């Protein structure tokens, strides 16, 4: 059996700020309920998930504020770019995520929007806790030190 890293994933959108602004906990892979023009727009790579989040409403999870640009050849059958989209997860996973958000004050942050090896649109969401300003400064300091250290090692060797 092949390892998980050998998969052929085509990443459409990546939320790079999430790892800086949030302490990432458990990560889940979810499907997304999309219309035809949304899928075509995603295949063209026209999506942003930087300001989006997931929300539990009525026993379902919804991806809120994700922008999937209108498909140019969509005509009158086009979709609304920032409409809420339903996330497809098992009931037990939905209950676990909704409970963590309500009880522990965590946030559901999308990390990556991609097509899996079967060609299905998937989104990677994570249970995350917001970082304080001093945590962000510590992360920035560590990152700059790693960069400097790598430069020093390259210059020496």
Question: What would you note in describing this structure?
Answer:
- The chain is α+β, with helices and mostly antiparallel strands and 157 residues long.
- It has helices spanning 18-21, 36-43, 91-104, 133-156, and strands spanning 10-14, 22-32, 47-48, 53-57, 60-64, 67-68, 85-88, 107-115, 121-130.
- A seven-stranded antiparallel sheet has the order 1-8-9-2-7-5-4.
- A hairpin with a 5-residue loop joins β8 (107-115) and β9 (121-130).
- The longest helix is centred in the C-terminal third of the chain and has 24 residues, at 133-156.
- The termini are far apart.
- The mean pLDDT is 86.
In angstroms, what separates the terminal alpha carbons? 39 Å
- Which residues sit in consecutive blocks of at least 5 with pLDDT less than 50? none
- Assign an overall shape: globular
Largest sheet report: 7 strands, antiparallel
How are the strands of the largest sheet arranged? Answer: 1-8-9-2-7-5-4
Structural category is alpha+beta
Tell me how many strands there are: 9
Continuous helix count: 4
Give the C-alpha Rg: 18 Å
Order of helices and strands: EHEHEEEEEHEEH
């Amino acid at each position: 059996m092949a390892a998980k890293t050998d998969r052929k994933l085509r990443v459409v959108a990546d939320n790079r700020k999430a790892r800086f602004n949030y302490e990432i906990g458990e990560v889940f892979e979810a499907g997304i309920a999309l219309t035809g023009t949304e899928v075509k727009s995603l295949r063209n790579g026209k999506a942003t998930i930087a300001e989006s989040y997931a929300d539990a409403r009525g026993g379902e999870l919804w991806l809120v504020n994700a922008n999937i640009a209108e498909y140019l050849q969509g005509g009158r059958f086009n979709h609304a770019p920032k409409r809420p989209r339903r996330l497809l997860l098992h009931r037990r996973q939905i209950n676990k995520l909704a409970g963590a958000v309500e009880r522990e004050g965590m946030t559901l942050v999308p990390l990556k929007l991609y097509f899996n090896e079967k060609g299905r649109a998937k989104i990677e969401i994570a249970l995350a806790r917001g970082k304080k300003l001093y945590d962000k400064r510590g992360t920035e300091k560590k990152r700059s030190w790693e960069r400097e250290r790598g430069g020093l090692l390259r210059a020496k060797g």
